[in-house]
Design brief:
The complex is a heterodimer of chains A (246) and B (182). With 246 residues, chain A is an alpha/beta fold. Chain A has two domains: 3-101 and 231-244, Rossmann fold; 104-225, Rossmann fold (3-Layer(aba) Sandwich). Chain A contains seven helices and nine strands; from the N terminus they run βαβαβαβαβαββαββα. In chain A, α3 (75-84) links the parallel β3 and β4. In chain A, α1 (23-35) crosses α7 (232-244). Chain A starts with a strand and ends with a helix. With 182 residues, chain B is of the alpha/beta class. Chain B has two domains: 7-89, Gyrase A, domain 2 (2-Layer Sandwich); 95-181, Alpha-Beta Plaits (2-Layer Sandwich), CATH 3.30.70. Chain B is built from seven helices and seven strands, in the order ββββαβαααααββα. Chain B has helices spanning 43-50, 78-88, 92-100, 109-113, 118-121, 128-139, 170-181; strands at residues 7-10, 13-17, 22-26, 38-39, 71-75, 146-147, 164-165. In chain B, the strands form two sheets. A five-stranded mixed β-sheet of chain B has the order 1-2-3-5-4. Chain B has a two-stranded parallel sheet with strand order 6-7. Classes of the chains: A alpha/beta (246), B alpha/beta (182). The A-B interface holds A 14-19, 26-27, 30, 33, 42, 44, 46-51, 53-55, 57-60, 80, 83-84, 90 and B 43-44, 47, 51-52, 58, 60-63, 83, 86, 90-95, 97-98, 103-105, 107, 112, 115, 166-167, 169-171, 174.
Amino acid sequence: MQFKDTALILAGHGSTKNADSSRFTRETAHRIREKGIFGEVRSAFWKEEPSFHEVLCGLELKRAVVVPWFLANGYFTTKILAKEFAETPGLDCRVTEPIGSRPEIFHLMRARAKKLCQMGEHLPQETSILVASHGTPLHPGSRKAAEGLAEQLLREGYRSARSVFLEEEPRISEWRGVVAKEGPVIVLPHFLAGGLHGSEDVPGLVGLASAEEGWSELNGRKIGYGEPLGKPEEMEEIVIHLARSI
Amino acid sequence: MNRDSQQVGIGQIAWRSDGRVYEIRHEEDINVSAQKLREIKNLLELEELVRRNGEGNYRPLRGEKNLVQGWFYSAKSALELREVLEVIYPGAMGNWSAQQKGELRVLRWKEAAKKQTGRVQALIEGGEKAVALAEKELCLTRCGKTPLWAEKSVVAKVGKVPFLCVEPCPLFWEKAKNLLNS
């Protein structure tokens, strides 16, 4: 089905410091644009240009669907985006659920955990999983999303699966207190790729030297680190599905 | 590209067209032989190019007057030209188009600050000096846009599309916050 009368806007966080933070959002927008499904495809950011306000000013079409490039229905989607995209005169603008709301996110996390088990030749029943997420005292949404993913992963037969956070308890740096006493540990960043949280902050807080996918040894313990989410080839269909379903 | 064809520009870029192809360049390169320039073949390549300055550092202020030189892009249609401009100066053509239609919505800084998080909202009461200094040091010195939100007016130039700023950008807020705290 074509949506030639509709502009698709990918609404992300972006960064004033890191050039790559928004890269996958922009790449996904390019990929979708080339498919020719939507009349216009734009990306817009909280911390980069174009801003949400600017992108709305510049649309040729009078109908827009906004897909939040966020992993949870949390502070940004409910407080910031809701305000930014509310009632633009002359424009029928609708905001979908964030990409993190889709069940495919769990499938991607599960695939990352499975791949790491295979790479390290570890059995799920001996392996602890940590879903490392943002969390914020400002809104429970981010925590809820990460906890939901950990619960689903536990049902896959892992020894344990818990969530840890940057800005809430339990903290990522205190991960040793939430995993099994021994055995390999897989850390799955519940962050969108390109940003500093998934590529620097989380590995640093865990004690890893790099964010590269694979296994390292930390004080005699095997630690596997998974890829962050958000690769364009994984997100493209999720975004299209969300935009079409509104 | 025919040098007699009409030249149009915005910010630091300019383009000419023979009616079929729009050739976009840095305005300082407009008369340089294409053989001496690097041809950019797709929008992603262009995006990676213009997101960094001549030293390879990230330039988050997209209107900053430090756009790299030495390249050209041939857009095969007006639609592709629009996409190219969107990559180089996101939102700029839309702002101009909205202004022409009388639909441009400019957000004065206090109004825009209300949408921000608490640390920026702290500027609303007593942040006027920090805002004025940030405007002087960032908007009026480094950026090529006209900050309509600061009640500055566009100076019309032949062949130049007005380069408009409709609300303070994230870099502006960062600078104003730092100035307030210092």
